[in-house]
């Protein structure tokens, strides 16, 4: 293991204990029924999306069967182009979850790095990073996304990028705040005194101990990312046709809300279930990570 | 802890106060209403009508007021409310290109006006006119009772002034200059005579050119034309809240009292962008007229009690839908590709899925009711033949096309139906959506490029292979057919006109355009346009016509006899009425 | 403390200047061109001549830094220019302030709805974690988070305005003129439902944190009544989090209601911004973003100064 040198030295305790900590977190998490259910549902959703088995081709329109209400043949009905909504919800999940996960991955990575660097080095570096983030924050979120998509052209990737940039500041703020307090801790001081590199201290020493707030934010922002995609689609700048995504499916159905309730309802339910599952997971993780909140 | 909380909530209050201070908050709003109640009499009546029966005293007082109002003002005040797609953009109609400005037509009066089919000129400011034998000189007799909305009198000199402004000052920024293309000069020999000379006689000068210049404004009020215009039409401008509603009021001193009869005293248009909200507002009785009912809701409006669908008399429409190709660059330069698309596209399916079957599918650019329409057999849909054409031309299937939908809402749905039908013909249409500014820049105008090559023609590059194009042109065959294929001056060096997205050009055809525009003989014109259509639509195929598109508006039954013009706008000049 | 405030104000000014640069360049690099938008569909004519003429008139032919310099020097004097594609010659400052004034009632009302519902819901859920009630509140609040606002808005219109006729479908008042609270109900609820969702989550977690903290345990141990502890000690601290969130959301609400404003045809700042972006009216976009951005920066500044006052450590960083 690459972190042996650090392991050998006592002061880097929180790092070396990490694996044990995770085992304990899992033990706590397992006892939370809502969290387990949420996890199971989310895994199931991901599985369905990844396997992607659909009863029909999600992009094929049966032009003789437009806006058909739910039936045995089409359990969720068909849309205005005669496409099977169930198939589109399944494939749409793949797109929506990917948009969400990628957006979160990009913004979490960028946000964590920015927060760590700002908090760890402090002084002018902190100042510069925080001012830049303040500019991003001061720009209205959806409009920043709108402009970026207008600039890069409407597409799945660009919607994803736009959403990511909007979400960088929250991560950076959380991580920075934690880093500020952690960098004064004895174990970090000690690691520095034996010559551990800054990068190592930041990622091995500080980051693991700020994971708890990050994880909670991930679960919240993932659902927000799915919804921002829906809003972008409503404004005509989201995922482009014929690719289905839950948000864009709802946006496309706006004209038919009063004519075909099934068009917005099923993708909407998919979003709802995902958001609930993610929140239960988030709550479960938080409780598991924070010993004070543990029941029993 | 107390302190901390207090401080934070103080912070919040400060924010609210700050925000309120910079905007004025809701207080001003209330004041606005009160002022209006004091100022305009109509408002009092409106308010009074809603007072419940139980409040006897109030009714007594207001009854007398109503009587007073009726005594001082002839027509019973009525307010008609219309929902537009977006806010009014240009009050100076000479500069307007926007469909959002459609209700500004209420304020206009031109030398002549048009009938509901836009094919004939009717008297307006000019009550009569003489035409020279060769058809190049027009002498208009101007009414002596035309007043501008500020009370100033209109004289023939004002027409000269307005036409000069449209041609020289506003120029390319508006559509007027183009409509004056055949005009060589114009003058006002006296206050009530207006002389116009044409380069050559043309059948569309009266019906489509001069009628498109209806916005004569008072030269004395030109400095406020962008914010508070003064025209001479039946309604005068009252106010516009930028990005929001526009208000017009009946101009009681308009010369044509017949036209004023039964019209609402106040006309307000509000922008409601979302289709479903617009329909909901109509259903809830908040507006009396909505423009652009989406095709999915046509049946719904027809079946809703108290609502009506306004349409075009006899279904005559000059609006149609076609596929356009990048005729000069890329893969669609090859006729085989364009022909394959023509055989593979499923027009019936597009009509059924996107337009609720309301369109009239065909291949001739003119609707079948058009006088210049000549029965022409359409190529039958045949995806196998499309594949054959492509393989014969040496392509490996599928051939991939860059399909850029227009920015109108239905285009994305259309693109998906097109994609599926083209796939059956061995063509893979990759849909690429552009936002509106990019569509204009890249498809309509083209991006400037260097030397001519496969990716650049005439200094312009258009970044698409194919896409849909929705046209609402003037109903003369020249407007409907040739406008879409013109160059600026009849030569390829002069560049292509705005509507020629395909950049089709053929000097022989250009001669036919000219011939069709300079003869008054209808039989001759029918022959010319048949030749043009045969050569373009059935031979060169820079475009594939999909269907003729009827246009609809929704209205409550308070609106009577309002018709929709061939281009889809309300025929506001007509004898429609409104009763509250 | 004075030095801290001075430093913080200076920093805010930096951010404001940076914001003006970012927005100026961002909107100018967006594809398309206002002169093209202004021309729209043209009849037979030489579009390119017209385009070049317009570009010259709008000053778009100048290098971008010259354009920026010109804009900034005017803005400093309070001159935000006039509109070029959203109508012609309308004073941008008046337009933007007018729209902000329209957005304010929705933002305030939504905020009120958010506060009134989320605080009790958060307390209920936070004091009974993982019970049926907690899960019900969670599900309800997540519905607010998960339902796209255009769907909620259209459903409210269809049911309450068309079916029941209780409230108007759209606009900020009767079309004939003025503002009406009647019109405010549906759009504010649409935005409010979203806020309730988010705020309840914060309130709940705030309560959870506080309830498990040592001093609350101590309070319990002292034998104080359960609800007395909740209301007197826990609530205040949990509120602190929520108030901060509210303060920070408020700036965003002014422009963040884009979708709600669009659905309800409420001519507010958010809607103005979207149309201005779509129609590339640079001056309007710049002014609107500057207004929204500076109100956000201002809130942040106030919050920071407040924290600096409460927590001396922050001052000396």
Average pLDDT over all residues of chain B: 84
Termini separation of chain B (Å)?
Answer: 61 Å
Supply the number of structural domains of chain A.
Answer: 1
Count of helices of chain A?
A: 13
Q: Report the sheet-strand fraction of chain B.
A: 15-25%
Order of adjacent strands in the largest pleated sheet of chain B = 8-9-10-1-11-21-12
SS-based class of chain A: mainly alpha
CATH fold field value of chain A = MetI-like fold
Uncertain segments of chain B of ≥5 residues (pLDDT<50)?
A: 1-73
What Rg of chain A do the Cα atoms give? 22 Å
Characterize the overall form of chain B: globular
Main beta-sheet annotation of chain B: 7 strands, mixed
Count of discrete alpha- or pi-helical segments spanning 4 or more residues of chain B:
18
Characterize the overall form of chain A: globular
Total beta strands of chain B: 23
The run of helices and strands of chain A is: HHHHHHHHHHHHH
Query: What kind of oligomer do you see?
Result: heterotrimer
Brief write-up:
The complex is a heterotrimer of chains A (about 300), B (about 575) and C (about 325). Chain B is α+β, with helices and mostly antiparallel strands and about 575 residues long.
Task: Give structural notes.
The complex is a heterotrimer of chains A (296), B (580) and C (317). Chain A has helices at 4-8, 13-16, 18-30, 33-51, 85-121, 123-138, 141-152, 156-182, 186-193, 198-206, 211-234, 246-252, 262-289. Chain A has 296 residues and is an all-alpha fold. Chain A has a single domain, classed as MetI-like (MetI-like fold), CATH 1.10.3720. Chain A is globular. Residues 1-16 of chain A have low confidence and may be disordered. Chain B has 580 residues and is an alpha+beta fold. Chain B folds into four domains: 2-67, no CATH class; 110-215, Dipeptide-binding Protein, domain 1; 235-315 and 558-578, 3-Layer(aba) Sandwich (D-Maltodextrin-Binding Protein, domain 2), CATH 3.40.190.10; 319-548, Dipeptide-binding Protein, domain 3 (Roll), CATH 3.10.105.10. The longest helix of chain B has 22 residues, at 2-23. Chain B starts with a helix and ends with a strand. The relative contact order of chain B is 0.12. Chain C is globular, with a radius of gyration of 24 Å. Chain C starts with a helix and ends with a helix. Chain C is mostly helical and 317 residues long. Chain C is built from 14 helices and no strands. Chain C has a single domain (92-316), classed as Orthogonal Bundle (MetI-like fold). At the B-C interface, α1, α2, α6, β10 and α9 of B face α2, α3, α5, α7 and α10 of C.
């Amino acid at each position: 293991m690459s972190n042996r040198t650090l392991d050998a030295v006592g002061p880097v305790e929180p790092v070396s204990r990490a694996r044990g900590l995770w085992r304990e977190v899992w033990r706590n998490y397992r006892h939370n029924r809502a969290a387990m259910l949420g996890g199971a549902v989310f895994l199931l959703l991901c599985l369905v999306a990844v396997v992607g088995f659909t009863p029909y081709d999600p992009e094929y329109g049966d032009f003789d069967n437009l806006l058909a209400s739910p039936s045995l043949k089409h359990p969720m009905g068909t849309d205005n182009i005669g496409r099977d909504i169930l198939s589109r919800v399944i494939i749409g999940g793949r797109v929506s979850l990917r948009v969400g996960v990628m957006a979160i991955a990009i913004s979490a990575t960028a946000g964590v790095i920015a927060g760590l660097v700002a908090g760890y080095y402090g002084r002018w570096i902190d100042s510069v990073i925080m001012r830049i983030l303040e500019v991003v924050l001061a720009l209205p979120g959806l409009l920043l996304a709108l402009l970026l998509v207008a600039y890069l052209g409407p597409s799945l990737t660009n919607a994803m990028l736009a959403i990511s940039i909007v979400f960088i500041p929250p991560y950076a703020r959380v991580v920075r705040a934690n880093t500020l307090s952690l960098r004064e801790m004895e174990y970090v001081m000690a690691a520095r005194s034996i010559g551990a590199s800054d990068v190592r201290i930041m990622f091995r020493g500080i980051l693991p101990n700020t994971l708890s707030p990050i994880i909670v934010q991930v679960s919240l922002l993932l659902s927000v990312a799915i919804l921002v995609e829906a809003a972008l689609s409503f404004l005509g700048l989201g995922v482009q046709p014929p690719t289905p995504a839950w948000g864009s499916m709802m946006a496309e159905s706006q004209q038919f809300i009063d004519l075909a309730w099934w068009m917005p309802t099923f993708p909407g339910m998919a979003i709802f279930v995902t958001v609930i599952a993610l929140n239960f997971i988030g709550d479960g993780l938080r409780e598991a990570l924070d010993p004070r909140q543990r029941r029993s | 802890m107390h302190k901390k909380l207090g401080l934070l909530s103080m912070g919040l209050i400060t924010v609210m106060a700050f925000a309120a201070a910079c905007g004025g908050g809701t207080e001003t709003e209330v004041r606005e209403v009160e002022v209006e109640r004091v100022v305009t009499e109509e408002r009092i009546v409106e308010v009074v009508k809603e007072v419940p029966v139980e409040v006897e005293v109030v009714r007594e007082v207001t009854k007398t007021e109503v009587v007073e109002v009726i005594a001082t003002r002839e027509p019973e005040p009525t307010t008609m409310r219309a929902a537009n797609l977006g806010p009014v953009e240009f009050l100076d109609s000479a500069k307007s290109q926007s469909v959002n400005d459609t209700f500004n037509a209420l304020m206009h009066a031109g030398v002549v006006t048009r009938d509901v089919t836009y094919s004939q000129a009717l008297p307006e400011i000019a009550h009569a006119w003489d035409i020279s034998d060769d058809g190049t000189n027009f002498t208009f007799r101007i009414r002596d009772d035309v007043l501008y909305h500020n009370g100033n009198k209109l004289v023939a000199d004002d027409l000269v002034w307005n036409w000069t402004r449209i041609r020289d000052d506003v120029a390319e920024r508006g559509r007027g200059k183009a409509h004056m293309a055949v005009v060589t000069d114009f003058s006002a020999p006296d206050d009530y005579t207006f002389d116009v000379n044409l380069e050559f006689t043309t059948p569309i000068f009266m019906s489509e050119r001069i009628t498109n210049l209806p916005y004569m404004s008072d030269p004395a009020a030109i400095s406020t034309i962008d914010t508070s215009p003064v025209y001479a039409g039946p309604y005068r401008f009252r106010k516009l809240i930028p990005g929001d509603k526009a208000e017009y009021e009946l101009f009681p001193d308009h010369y044509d009292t017949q036209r004023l009869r039964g019209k609402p005293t106040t006309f307000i248009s509000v922008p409601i962008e979302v289709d479903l909200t617009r329909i909901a507002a109509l259903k809830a009785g908040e507006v009396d007229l909505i423009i652009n009912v989406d095709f999915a809701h046509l049946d719904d409006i027809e079946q809703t009690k108290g609502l009506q669908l306004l349409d075009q008399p006899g279904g005559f429409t000059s609006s149609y839908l076609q596929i356009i190709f990048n005729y000069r660059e890329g893969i669609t330069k090859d006729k085989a590709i364009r022909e394959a698309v023509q055989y593979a596209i499923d027009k019936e399916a597009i009509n059924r899925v996107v337009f609720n079957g309301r369109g009239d599918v065909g291949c001739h650019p003119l609707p079948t009711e058009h006088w210049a329409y000549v029965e022409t057999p359409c190529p039958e849909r045949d995806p196998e033949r499309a594949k054959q054409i492509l393989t014969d031309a040496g392509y490996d299937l599928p051939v991939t096309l860059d399909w850029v939908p227009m920015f109108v809402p239905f285009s994305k749905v259309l693109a998906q139906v097109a994609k599926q039908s083209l796939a059956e013909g061995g063509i893979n249409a990759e849909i690429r959506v552009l936002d509106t500014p990019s569509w204009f820049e890249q498809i309509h105008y083209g991006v400037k490029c260097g030397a001519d090559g496969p990716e650049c023609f005439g200094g312009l590059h258009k970044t698409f292979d194919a896409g849909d194009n929705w046209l609402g042109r003037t109903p003369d065959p020249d407007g409907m057919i040739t406008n879409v294929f013109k160059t600026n001056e009849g030569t390829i060096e002069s560049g292509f006109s705005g509507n020629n997205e395909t950049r089709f050009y053929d000097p022989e055809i250009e001669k036919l355009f000219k011939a069709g525009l300079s003869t008054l003989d209808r039989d001759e014109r029918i022959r010319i346009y048949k030749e043009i259509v045969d050569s373009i639509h059935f031979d060169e195929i820079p475009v594939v016509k999909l269907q003729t598109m009827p246009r609809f508006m929704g209205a409550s039954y308070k609106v009577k006899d309002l018709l929709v013009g061939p281009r889809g706008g309300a025929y506001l000049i007509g004898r429609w009425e409104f009763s509250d | 403390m004075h030095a801290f405030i001075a430093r913080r104000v200076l920093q805010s000014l930096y951010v404001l200047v940076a914001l003006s640069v970012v927005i100026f360049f961002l909107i100018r690099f967006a594809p398309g061109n206002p002169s093209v938008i202004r021309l729209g569909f043209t009849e037979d004519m030489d579009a390119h001549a017209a385009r070049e003429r317009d570009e010259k008139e709008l000053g778009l032919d100048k290098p971008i830094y010259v354009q920026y310099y010109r804009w900034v020097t005017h803005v400093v004097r309070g001159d935000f220019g006039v509109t070029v594609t959203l109508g012609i010659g309308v004073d941008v400052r008046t337009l933007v302030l007018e729209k902000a004034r329209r957005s304010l009632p929705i933002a305030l009302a939504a905020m009120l709805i958010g506060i009134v519902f989320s605080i009790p819901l958060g307390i209920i859920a936070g004091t009974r974690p993982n019970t049926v009630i907690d899960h019900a509140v969670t599900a309800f609040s997540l519905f607010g988070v998960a339902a796209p606002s255009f769907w909620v808005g259209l459903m409210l219109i269809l049911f309450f305005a068309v079916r029941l006729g209780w409230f108007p479908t759209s606009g900020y008042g009767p079309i004939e003129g003025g503002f009406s609270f009647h019109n405010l109900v549906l759009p504010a609820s649409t935005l409010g439902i979203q806020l309730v969702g988010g705020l309840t989550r914060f309130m709940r977690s705030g309560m959870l944190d506080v309830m498990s903290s040592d001093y609350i345990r101590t309070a319990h141990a002292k034998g104080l009544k359960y609800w007395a502890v909740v209301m007197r000690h826990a609530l205040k601290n949990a509120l602190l989090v929520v108030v901060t969130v509210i303060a920070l959301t408020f700036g965003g609400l002014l422009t963040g209601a884009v979708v709600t404003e669009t659905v309800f045809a409420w001519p507010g700042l958010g809607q103005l911004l979207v149309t201005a972006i779509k129609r590339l009216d640079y001056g309007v976009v710049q002014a609107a973003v500057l207004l929204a951005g500076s109100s956000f920066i201002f809130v942040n500044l106030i919050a920071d100064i407040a924290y600096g006052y409460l927590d001396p450590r922050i001052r000396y960083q």
